[in-house]
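Minutes, methods subgroup
Present: GH (chair), OT, SY

1. OT presented the first of two proteins processed in the latest run. Sequence and structure tokens recorded below as shown on screen.
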Amino acid sequence: MLENEANPTISKSTGLPRKRFYRARAHSNPLSDSHFPVPISPSHVDFSLHYPQFFSLSCEVGCIKKVQFADIGCGFGGLLVSLSTLFPETLMIGMELRDKVAEYVKERILALRTTNPGQYQNVSVVRTNSMKYIPNYFEKGQLTKMFFLFPDPHFKEKNHRRRVISPHLLDEYAYVLEVGGIIYTITDVEELGEWMKTCLDNHPMFEALTEEELQADPAVKLLCTATEEGQKVARNGGQTFQAVYRRIALSL
């Protein structure tokens, strides 16, 4: 408690970091050159630093767990926190370009681990540009779920190349997703929703989930409620547009 009283960035009541000290621009330019370390390949990423409890257990049984969920542009980490308890044995990571926001998520996870012993050990965050470096972090067919929640719409046509869902980026996502892995997208911008759905419809390695599959998937229920952006849309009575697709084998 004395430490929290001395540190104004930490809430005295919850022990969690205060968002107002980590605010940043709503979006960053993904095509700009940012300065942060980038691993040469997935084998150069030391995930034991992210999940020390899981990796100590893995060493004991001789089986190293791998990250299976990736939240692209994770924002303040709301989805990650919700997924962490829903899938407690699955390693998941948020990828965020904005340095202050990534730092907030890191501090949030550390605080949750402290106040909830044994929980939130399966979730972490990394500051990186996922539009450039996805293959540097994940092996072929490693991921089972990828989330793209309320991405920057980049309204101007000349900036559509900055959109995180595009035909050429779907090639990379298909590479790191296992067959049967799922991409989840949601936005409150109708035009962007149509864009993402069209990109996925036109890609030969993705097919839409059926309505029955959507209803049975617990992750789908979090798309509107787990993030700060989704909660804001709900408060304002806004509409959302989802596209949830499965990675399929390429037909020859």
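2. SY then presented the second protein from the same run.
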Amino acid sequence: MVLPEGSVMSSDSPNDPVIRILLMGRNTSGKSSSGNTILGERKFTVQKKKKEPEVCEGQTQIGGKQVVVIDCPNLMDSDLNENQLAMIKEQLASRCSAGLSAVLLTVPILKPVQNEEEILGNIEVFFGPEVQKYIMILFTHGDELEDLDQAIDEHLKHTDHTDLQRLVTECGGKFHCFNNKKKVEGSVEKLLQKTEGMKKENRGNFLMEQMQRHDSMDVLNLSFSGKSLQIDPGSG
């Protein structure tokens, strides 16, 4: 696959009826489970390790609108080798080429923040800085909040959760919370409303027309899982 030069990002028509959502996050963050919750079926395999990690896609109809969900493996996984990373990045570019309505970073609500800020940074490296307008934090394991009899807003206001507050702030205050263990009436619909609100505010889906690259370099240099990958834009 040829990676085009430049770093231009743009939006398509806000009237595009398809809602396209990209899920990203660390292992065991509830990413694939969240995709299944949105789709209303077990489309994505939920397990710690896959024999061959790949970018997966599922589609459904919600409220008369087509919803496409893209589940991306953890690009910060230190177990991935350079060939696997290169393959995943090509798959990701291909799957996202039609545009994105939202990029959801899945974060377990009661677990300590780990490398989420680094993942956010790498999302911007891969897609370019304009993608930040489309990133939303999707807190998972909402059932654990129910056990504590807490609402998500109340939980985030607590002084012990400045790390979560910082993540939300970096994403422009945009967040949602999922309980993936049981169906919560209206939860998916509310997420889609927030996604469409972002899409309207940004006047369309995010389009990855061209990959970002360093001005002084002839190769695209992306760093995931502690490895630096250089891809010749003229190859493939």
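Chair's summary of item 2: The first helix runs from residue 31 to 39.
Next meeting: continue with the remaining queue.
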